[in-house]
Fold this protein.
Amino acid sequence: MLYDLVRKTRSFRRFQQEEVIDMEILKSFVDLARLGGSARNVQPLKYMLVNAPVFNAQIFPHLFWAGYLKDWPGPEEGERPSAYIICLLDTSLSNEAECDLGIATQNILLGAAEKGLGGCRIASFSPELKDVLAVEGHLRILMVLALGRAVEKVFLDKRKPEGDIKYWRDADQIHHVPKRSLEEIIAGEIAA
Ligand SMILES: Cc1cc2nc3c(=O)[nH]c(=O)nc-3n(C[C@H](O)[C@H](O)[C@H](O)COP(=O)(O)O)c2cc1C
């Protein structure tokens, strides 16, 4: 069921670091991204795929995790992502692709969820990451998708009307994500 898959497609930030995600699997995720919609059908997104532990270790320090969890510096050694898909904008084709990026990354994360894997979009990263990855001049990093087999539980909570939208962790390290209710986000109904 699509609803169940979408519910399962959460942001996961703790992984089974040792489990290598096959390059062919990463390519199959990018193939899902490729099939997504693109403004004016320009398709300006390019992708760099990484599953080598040595490179994973070089990428990791440049990523900023879970800003609302002030006491959590990010996944510890052993629970770090085992693969990355770096989403790049080809500036020779377009100057922006934020909508394309949302579609593409959701397709990738849905594909990961279908395979029992998980991931997290990381839009906060240090500018030095492009040097680490030797990104060519016409390409700009828009987002990093951290991927792996998740080892954490994520619960969706119904946000209470007066409640906070900040995600939080309970004493068992279960990650809770308050979602606004359907009623709250339907701004109007013009029924037949
Ligand atoms: C555009 C975008 C940028 C994000 N950037 C980061 C980030 O830099 N670091 C991070 O830990 N999570 C990041 N996230 C994940 C969000 O925190 C997450 O989507 C949100 O908490 C809701 O959880 P859910 O994805 O499980 O619904 C980003 C998500 C989106 C959509």
Q: What stands out?
A: Helices lie at 2-8, 23-34, 53-59, 98-114, 129-132, 182-185. The longest strand covers residues 139-148.
